[in-house]
């Protein structure tokens, strides 16, 4: 029992990230922000860009953009489409080297 309590009492240190997607784990949203997110979920996707909601948490605005881009790409204007394409490219390029290394390791691992 004490070992179990000890395991759960260990605070894990996570590397800070500039990526708003991984910042989801940095903390909980306030009740006001959660209420605003309810409004977002209830809003017609075509009207999401016009929402004028103030958020306490700085993560929500970029998350809203990514939510729209991932789930309702047809609602993005030309500038937003370019912004989303650039983001996707940056994510891809930042991860391709690690992906290729993992792929090579898998090939070597499963060679006969």
Q: What would you note in describing this structure?
A:
This protein has 112 residues and is an all-alpha fold. The protein has two domains: 1-76, Monooxygenase (Up-down Bundle), CATH 1.20.1280; 77-112. The chain has helices at 2-9, 31-42, 60-71, 78-109. The longest helix is centred in the C-terminal third of the chain and has 32 residues, at 78-109. The mean pLDDT is 88.
Defining traits:
single chain, 112 residues, mainly alpha, Monooxygenase, 4 helices, 57% helix, Exonuc_1_C
Can you write the helix and strand succession as a string? HHHH
Cα shape? flat
Mean pLDDT across the residues is 88
CATH superfamily heading of the largest domain: Exonuclease ExoI, domain 3
Tally of DSSP helical segments = 4
Class from helix and strand fractions: mainly alpha
Biggest pleated sheet: none
Number of domains: 2
Give the uncertain stretches in residue-range form.
Answer: none
> What distance lies between the first and last C-alpha atoms, to the nearest angstrom?
46 Å
CATH topology of the largest domain: Monooxygenase
Taking all Cα atoms into account, the compactness measure Rg is 20 Å
Q: Can you give the helix content as a percent range?
A: 55-70%
Q: What's the CATH class of the largest domain, please?
A: Mainly Alpha
